[in-house]
Amino acid sequence: MRITVDPGRCVGAGQCVLTAPDLFDQDDDGLVTVLAGAADAADPGDVRDAAALCPSGAISVAAD
Amino acid sequence: MSTEADARTAAPQCPVAFPLRRPGRPFPPPEYATYRGGAGLVRSELPSGPVWLVTRHEDVRAVLTDPRISADPSKPGFPKAGRTGGAPSQYEVPGWFVAMDPPEHGRFRKTLIPEFTVRKVRELRPVIQQIVDERIDAMLAAGTSADLVESFALPVPSLVISSLLGVPKVDRDFFEDRTRVLVRLSSTDEERDKATQALLRYLGRLIQIKQRRPGDDLISRLIAAGTLSRQELSGVAMLLLIAGHETTANNIGLGVVQLLTNPRWIGDDRIVEELLRYYSVADLVAFRVAVEDVEIGGQLIRAGEGIVPLIAAANHDATAFAAPSEFDPERSARSHVAFGYGVHQCLGQNLVREEMDIAYRTLFARIPSLTLAVPVEELPLKYDGVLFGLHELPVTWK
Ligand code: SF4
C-alpha cells in the first residue's frame, strides 16, 4: 500500500489524524504529514477511511 | 434515453418553498426524503431568485468539492436567504474567508490552520473544562432550575472562543446580541449591516490594543505573524467569533435533550459524532453558485444558478447511513457533512467535538438528577434561523 499526501491541498481539518493517529500527523503549519515508517504497519481500512473522509482530497492510496 | 435525461425531466418544475422546515413538524423536514428518493435536486425560490436544493449525500459532497461551484457571494446568481434578498454585508468584510474561493481562500485558511490542529485543540481541554465547571457552579448556586441554553449551552462555546481569541469576558453579551441578528433568517439588511459594523469597530479597537500589548491569544499570534492586514484580521476574528458559538451552542442544547430522553448513551464516547450527524444544525449554511455549467446527480446546473446543498438531507440519506432517522451512536457517523466538505470544511470542528464531549460528560456527572422541565414536544425549536437549534431549554434538578 502506497500512501501519498499532498500538503498543498490539505485544509488542516485533521480528519486523517482522528482516523489514523499512528499514521498521520499535522506539522507545525497544521498540514498533513505521514509518520515515518508507519505506512507499512497501517491498517488498510483506516487508511481508506482517512482518504475518504479527507475533505480536500489530499490523501491518496495506491496498492503496490 | 439516458438515465441522466430521465433524472432531468423528473425534477419538479414548480419550485418548493424555502426553507422547508416548519414549526411543529419533525426535523429534518419529511420532504428531504421524498426529494432524495426522487430527482435528488429540486428547484426552490429565494428572495434573490431561483436555486437548486441538493439532498443526496453523494451530490452534496460533489457540490462542495467541485471547483466549478463557487462560495463567493459576489458571483452573479449567488443565493441570498435574507428576507429582503440583499447581500448579507458580512460577506463583504475583508478576511471573511468562508466566502472566498481558492486560491484566495487558502491564504487565510493556512494562516489559521496551526491554531486548530488536533493537538492544539486537545491542549485547550483544561480551559474548556474550567469554563464548563464554572457555568455549572453558577447554575447550581442559582437554584434548582435554569434555561440551559441561556446558562450553559450558549455561554460555554462563547467563553471558549472569546478566551481563545483573547476577547474580554465582559464583552460576551455584546457579541451574542450582534451574532443573533446575523444568524436570523428574518433579519433585515439594515439590521445585519448595523451588527456587522458594530462588531468590526469593536474588533478593530481590540486589535489596536493587542498590537501594543500582545497576550497569549490567537489575535495576538495573528498580529505577530504579520500576514494579514488589520482589516483582514478584524474580519477573521469576527468570523471565528460567530462561527464558533451559535453552532456549538445549538449542538450542545439539542444533544442534552437527546441524552435526557435517551439516557443509556450518557457517557458513551461515540455520541458526539452521531449528534452532529443527527441534528445537522448547519443545514442551511453552505450556499453556492455554479460559475460554469456542471452536472450534479444527473441534473444540469447552468452557470449563474444558485445551489443550496442541504446538510441535514445529506446526513439523513439512507444510502450513506443505515436507518438514518434513528439516533444510534454505534454506527460509524464520521462521513457526515455536518461540518461541510471540501476546502471550506469547518476549521474549528475539533474544537466543537471537544466542547460537546466535555459539556455532556461534566453536566451529567455533576447534575445526575437533571430533567426536562417541559415535555419534549413543547421545547421551542429554531425554525426561523440559518442554524437549527433550541430557543430555550428549561431544566430542573434536585
Ligand atoms: S484530513 Fe485531509 S485536509 Fe484534513 S488534515 Fe488530513 S490531509 Fe489535511
Net shape of chain B:
globular
Number of helices of chain A: 2
The main sheet of chain B comes to: 5 strands, mixed
Widest beta sheet: strand line-up of chain A: 1-4
* Straight-line N-to-C gap of chain A: 5 Å
* Count of extended strands of chain A: 4
Low-confidence stretches of chain A: none
Average pLDDT metric of chain B: 90
CATH topology of chain B: Cytochrome p450
> What ligands can be seen in this structure?
iron/sulfur cluster
Strand order of the largest sheet of chain B: 1-2-8-5-3
**What is the subunit arrangement here?**
heterodimer
Q: What's the mean pLDDT score of chain A?
A: 90
The helix fraction of chain B, in percent, is 40-55%
CATH fold name of chain A, please?
Answer: Alpha-Beta Plaits
Global geometry of chain A: globular
Give the key terms.
heterodimer; A: 64 residues; alpha+beta; Alpha-Beta Plaits; two-stranded antiparallel sheet; 4 strands; B: 398 residues; Cytochrome p450; 5-stranded mixed β-sheet; 3-stranded antiparallel β-sheet; globular; disordered N terminus; binds iron/sulfur cluster
Structure overview:
The complex is a heterodimer of chains A (about 60) and B (about 400). Chain A has about 60 residues and is of the alpha+beta class. Chain A has one domain (about 1-60): Alpha-Beta Plaits. Chain A contains two helices and four strands. Chain A has helices spanning about 15-20, 45-55, and strands spanning about 1-5, 25, 30-35, 60. In chain A, the strands form two sheets. A two-stranded antiparallel ribbon of chain A has the order 1-4. In chain A, strands 2-3 form a two-stranded antiparallel ribbon. The longest helix of chain A has 10 residues, at about 45-55. The relative contact order of chain A is 0.35. The model of chain A has no long low-confidence stretch (mean pLDDT about 90). Chain B is of the alpha+beta class and about 400 residues long. Chain B has a single domain, classed as Cytochrome P450 (Cytochrome p450), CATH 1.10.630. Chain B has a five-stranded mixed β-sheet with strand order 1-2-8-5-3. A three-stranded antiparallel β-sheet of chain B has the order 4-10-9. In chain B, strands 6-7 form a two-stranded antiparallel ribbon. In chain B, strand 6 and strand 7 (about 300) form a beta hairpin. The radius of gyration of chain B is 21 Å and the shape is globular. The termini of chain B are far apart. Residues about 1-10 of chain B have low confidence and may be disordered. The site of iron/sulfur cluster (SF4) has 15 residues of chain A, from helix 1.
